[in-house]
Amino acid sequence: MARIPHETFDCAVGCSVEATLNLIGGKWKGVILYRLLAEQVLRFNELRRFLPNITQRMLTNQLRELERDGLVARKVYAEVPPKVEYRLTAHGQTLAPVIAALKQWGDAHIEDGTIKVPTEAG
Known about the structure:
Number of strands: 3
GO molecular function: DNA binding
Order of helices and strands: HHEHHEEHH
Number of helices: 6
Strand order of the largest sheet: 1-3-2
Protein name: Transcriptional regulator
Oligomer: single chain
CATH class: Mainly Alpha
Keywords: DNA-binding, Transcription, Transcription regulation
Pfam family, one: HxlR
Organism: Stutzerimonas kirkiae
Helix content: 40-55%
Radius of gyration: 16 Å
């Protein structure tokens, strides 16, 4: 059964964590945000190259959600073939310390062996 997210976050301590995870949680959003922080501007296929295991549909959905939530801006150029670029909004850029902390924590725990990096075979 799918979990129904809160309409508002006027609840107890910890709700701010839940609200943040609703925006950036999931398998792909954090990685998309990290890549946009690192590269500044990326086209759709450039993002796909950075995320070889994501489907086109999933990437499209994740980008739409990030755009809807005001974290990513999408710019469409009127040319053939169509050119679409993605970048973080000013609001999305405020996540830089959060994403950097996640990366730092992950790097430390991968290095000490407490996190196992998934392989394509397994």
